[in-house]
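Quick one, T. Sequence first:
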Amino acid sequence: MDKILENCRSPGQLIEEALKAKGWTQRVLSIVLGMDETGVNKIIGDKRPVTADMALMLEEVLGISAERFMELQQTYDLAKARITARPDPKRATRAQLFGGLPVTEMIKRGWLNVDNIKDVPAIETELARFFKASTIDDIEVLPHAAKKTEVVGGVTDVQLAWLYRVRQIASELIVAKYSQLSALSCIKKLSGLLYSREEARKVPKILAEAGIRFVIVESLPSAKIDGVCFWLNENSPVIGMAMRYDRIDNFWFVLRHELEHVIQRHGQDKAVLDTELEGANAGVGAEIPEEERIANRAAADFCVPSKMMKAFVDRKSPYFSEQDILAFSSMTKVHPGLIVGQIRHITGRYNLFANHLVKIRSVVTPNAAVDGWGDVYPVED
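Structure tokens:
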């Protein structure tokens, strides 16, 4: 201890030096302070800490600031604690897991089978199960974990948890055999559903018949996820959607965006996680990755044929009337909400015709594999 503390001046040493300078004994100090001499001896011997009250008394009689005594006491106590402290790797692991993952939300959503948020061992066991890790230290959100999910672009711990839930559910779905031809046929069938909001209920079945596993998992707080495309194997594509925005235009754009990833066989090596597919991220600018530009272009053209959309905007801009929207909707055989969505994106005027951006989640989810909004999809362990 002496070696460790040799550069750490203690409060007792400071008091002792001050007494020498004054020519006082410890007994004199005890009399001046009105204290028992044994108590003073313990403070000088660093066997009793200098409290705030004592620091003020010493300041008064020795002329040394109370702050100096308190600073020395804190430094001395910390140095002593370091001698006996033992590093706990599990503490750092818990900090990364509980600090990075939305554990409370995962329990609430039924992803972790834990009754008490304070039951740390049970939570760690469930986290290992959820992430298919042999031990808590092998969970891939930890920097030292050997196994890492390949994802295009950066991915947060929260987004990775969402992705694992999509994969859990997708693995249990039974769908037809997938082929490039079935995917193209699927898109043709879907294009016939665009005019009516209620027709969207057929989406899950059409995708399953094309061999595409379709999963809807409510987004986690701060995840900002719209969709994902990945493959369980070379012939088993998965589309996951979060349906953060309950709007008809957003649903069809994101779905067709992910379908294009499937058709292009994107996501076979690395999952393509799409976040915030609104505004600039729904464009085709040079700053957007090539595969995203391809998917964005296909999605926009699917919702409303691009040439027709451009001609309509060029002809009517900057003034768009309700009658114009409905007439164009009738001509293109797509819901007015899809036209409005494209107008808003092209013009940047996101306040236009919000009445046409109808909700669609309640139409799609009854026939889909859904996890969230109060429902827990049953997954076999």
